[in-house]
UniProtKB/TrEMBL annotation:
One Gene Ontology term of the molecular function aspect: phosphopantothenoylcysteine decarboxylase activity
Gene name in the database record: coaBC
Biological function: Catalyzes two steps in the biosynthesis of coenzyme A. In the first step cysteine is conjugated to 4'-phosphopantothenate to form 4-phosphopantothenoylcysteine, in the latter compound is decarboxylated to form 4'-phosphopantotheine. Catalyzes two sequential steps in the biosynthesis of coenzyme A. In the first step cysteine is conjugated to 4'-phosphopantothenate to form 4-phosphopantothenoylcysteine. In the second step the latter compound is decarboxylated to form 4'-phosphopantotheine.
Residue span relative to the full protein: 179 to 407 of 407
Name listed for the protein in its UniProt record: Coenzyme A biosynthesis bifunctional protein CoaBC
Catalytic reaction annotation: (R)-4'-phosphopantothenate + L-cysteine + CTP = N-[(R)-4-phosphopantothenoyl]-L-cysteine + CMP + diphosphate + H(+); N-[(R)-4-phosphopantothenoyl]-L-cysteine + H(+) = (R)-4'-phosphopantetheine + CO2
Length: 229
């Protein structure tokens, strides 16, 4: 790690990393959210900075100190994330979407706290949020810009994981998809993970390791994709 960090092979590159999980407010005190810890995004930002990149970290609801020398733009909802990432991506060489955006948001948030009515339940009317990554792919003007997505899936087996990943890579149109299997206590909030890297050329992995080690592997691959253009 130290030797690779000293290589400064990302010097001169502007990179954007998104991290954490977005929240969609139902009312002033409640939200729909997810359990993304932000650890992978933090590891990616730290690794890129160590290798000399100019890093912007867009963080959705992550309660940790910023990595050294990395400016953090805090966001709450998927719409906020979309605006912040789009703005930063306009001048970026690489964008890594490690954040877990909420896919649905209330059709109309209540301005006041929702009250129980009798012993009845509650039906929520939800609409889809903007797909940030798909928006980046559509808005790309620099053909050398590298766009990286993440996919956490709950597959039935390893073959299913790859099939889900290939379909998502094709649907999103990004250059690299970092796949991991979640569920049964795996990945979320843990210092280690296991990833498979999917590109149009094929699959690399699965590789297990600390999120710091895996972050370096992701930058190696992103850099290789950029050099090949
Ligand atoms: N993503 C995004 N905007 C969204 C949802 C997801 O940019 N509104 C990004 C994530 O940050 C990730 C990639 O897209 O890099 C894949 O996210 P994922 O949730 O796996 O994909 P979805 O298209 O939302 O599909 P699914 O129905 O499986 O959740
Ligand atoms: Ca999703």
């Amino acid at each position: 790690l130290t030797r690779r960090a000293a290589a400064q092979d990302l010097a001169g590159l502007r990179v954007v990393v998104s991290a954490g999980g977005t929240r969609e407010h139902l009312d002033p005190v409640r939200f729909l959210g997810n359990s993304s810890s932000g650890l992978m995004g933090w590891a990616l930002a730290r690794a890129a900075r160590l290798r000399g990149a100019d890093v912007t970290l867009v963080a959705a609801n992550v309660d940790r100190p910023a990595p050294p020398a990395v400016p953090v733009t805090p966001v709450t909802s998927t719409a906020d994330l979309d605006a912040a990432v789009r703005a930063a991506a306009a001048t970026a060489d690489v964008v890594v979407m490690a954040a877990a955006p909420a896919d649905f948001t209330p059709a109309a948030a209540s301005g006041t706290k929702i009250k129980k009515s009798g012993d009845g339940g509650l039906e929520l009317d939800l609409v889809q949020t903007a797909d940030v990554l798909a928006g980046l792919v559509a808005a790309r003007t620099d053909p050398r810009q590298v766009l990286v997505g993440f996919a956490a899936e709950t597959p039935s087996d390893d073959a299913d994981l790859l099939a889900l990943g290939r379909a998502k890579l094709a649907r999103k149109g990004c250059d690299l998809l970092v796949l991991n299997a979640v569920g049964r206590g795996r990945v979320f909030g843990q210092p280690d993970s296991e990833i498979t890297l999917l590109t149009a050329d094929g699959a690399q992995g699965p590789r297990a390791g600390s999120k710091d080690t895996l972050a370096h592997l992701i930058w190696d691959t992103a850099l290789r994709l950029r050099s090949s253009r």
